[in-house]
Inverse folding.
């Protein structure tokens, strides 16, 4: 590396460290907006109306209203960002696109649809990175690295630190194939630095009144001090089951997206109403709150893990799985990861309630590892996430998490994948289009 290149790269690292602070704070503000909207719509208004729980028609109506709001938002510049069916993207976006991405995601997440905040947070980081690049008039490779660093800092807000964010975007970037293998470390280091300085913000605002940061966290699980053959055998079967559930949901979502009977606006509204109806059916049948079906699922994980009825958990997998497919396929905006994790944990808890000798802790670890891997094909990120969430049991649970993630990756890649078919069709059409 020449001296000029080295000094330019050091400058990029310094700028990335500075960028991480405002991006992280913006990510916390966006999470706070989601939290406050959920609080007003699902708690304050029902309380003002004198309900102990939201009326059935209200639960159906609110997600339907979200469909109307998202349909309006996608007409703005940026069209609400890319569909969650496309996974997580780190492509640069113009800052003006945030005018549609953030409102569409806020309506989706705040009004109860089954998607997560990771995709809009990545878009927020990319957009703010682009703003900074324009302000300081940075060009070339340094500008590209700084924009990507914004995505790192924003998504780190979900995981309380830079490690999972770095691994996640590392695997997503590597899978995209646009960065040469020998350049990946150099390309992603600024993002890692930005995520690190952003983590200082998360720590600093943790006690601030009025700000809310939603991290993926688990309740205290029973300690797991040694790998047992019984757990290992059962968890491999559970890994296959979770993979089948997640891949089947994504297939259904692609079928919903490809249907031609209903227009885009009507599809959003009808799908929103259907998601609300599924939550009502679940509440009426299982006598459990609609929150378990609605939303991304990370804050409801303690209730899922504590659920002692296999029948309720099976019904939850069915209803939340259908709601997830509708949210993915109809055009709502959000991330695909956290609902897949929630469904993975719910499926694993069905097994923990039914299979003899399967402990709760390895079952939960398997559900998280496979849910993450099956939806994004990021086994390294999945195992790291499990290790950070398992606390004192992380060392002993690691072999199970690794094998579960491997089985999830194999199952997800072996089963027919609609994204692969889509890419194949595009590849076949490309030569013909160039003639």
């Amino acid at each position: 590396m020449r001296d000029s290149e080295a000094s330019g790269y050091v400058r990029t690292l310094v700028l990335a460290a500075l960028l991480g602070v405002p991006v992280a704070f913006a990510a916390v503000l966006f999470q706070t907006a989601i939290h406050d909207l959920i609080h007003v719509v699902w708690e304050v208004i029902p309380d003002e109306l004198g309900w102990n729980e939201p009326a059935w028609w209200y639960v159906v109506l609110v997600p339907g209203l979200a469909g109307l709001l998202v349909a309006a938002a996608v007409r703005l510049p940026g069209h609400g960002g890319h569909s969650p069916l496309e996974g997580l993207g780190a492509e640069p976006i113009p800052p003006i696109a945030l005018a549609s991405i953030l409102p569409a995601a806020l309506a989706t997440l705040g009004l109860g649809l089954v998607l997560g905040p990771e995709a809009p947070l990545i878009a927020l980081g990319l957009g703010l990175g682009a703003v900074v690049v324009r302000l300081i008039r940075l060009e070339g490779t340094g500008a590209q690295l700084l924009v990507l660093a914004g995505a790192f800092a924003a998504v780190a807000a979900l995981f309380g630190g830079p490690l999972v964010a770095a691994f996640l975007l590392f695997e997503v970037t590597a899978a995209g194939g646009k960065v040469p293998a020998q350049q990946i470390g150099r390309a992603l280091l600024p993002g890692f630095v930005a995520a690190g300085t952003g983590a200082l913000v998360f720590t600093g605002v943790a006690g601030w009144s009025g700000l809310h940061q939603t991290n993926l966290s688990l309740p205290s699980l029973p300690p797991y001090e040694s790998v047992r053959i019984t757990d290992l055998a059962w968890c491999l079967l559970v890994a296959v089951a979770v993979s089948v559930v997640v891949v089947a949901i994504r297939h259904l979502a692609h079928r919903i997206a490809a249907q031609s009977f209903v227009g885009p606006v009507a599809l959003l509204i009808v799908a929103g109403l259907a998601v609300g109806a599924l939550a009502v059916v679940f509440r009426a049948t299982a006598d459990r709150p609609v929150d378990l079906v609605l939303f991304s699922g990370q804050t409801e994980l303690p209730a899922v893990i504590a659920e002692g009825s296999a029948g309720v958990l099976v019904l939850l997998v069915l209803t939340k799985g259908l709601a997830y497919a509708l949210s993915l396929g109809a055009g709502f905006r959000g991330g695909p990861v956290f609902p897949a994790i929630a469904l993975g944990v719910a499926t694993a808890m069905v097994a923990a309630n039914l299979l003899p000798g399967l402990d709760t802790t390895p079952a939960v670890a398997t559900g998280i590892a496979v849910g993450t891997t099956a939806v994004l094909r990021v086994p390294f990120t999945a195992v790291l996430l499990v290790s950070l969430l398992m606390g004192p049991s992380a060392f002993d649970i690691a072999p199970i998490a690794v094998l579960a993630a491997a089985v999830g990756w194999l199952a997800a890649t072996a089963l027919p994948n609609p994204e692969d078919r889509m890419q194949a069709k595009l590849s076949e059409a490309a030569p013909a289009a160039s003639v």
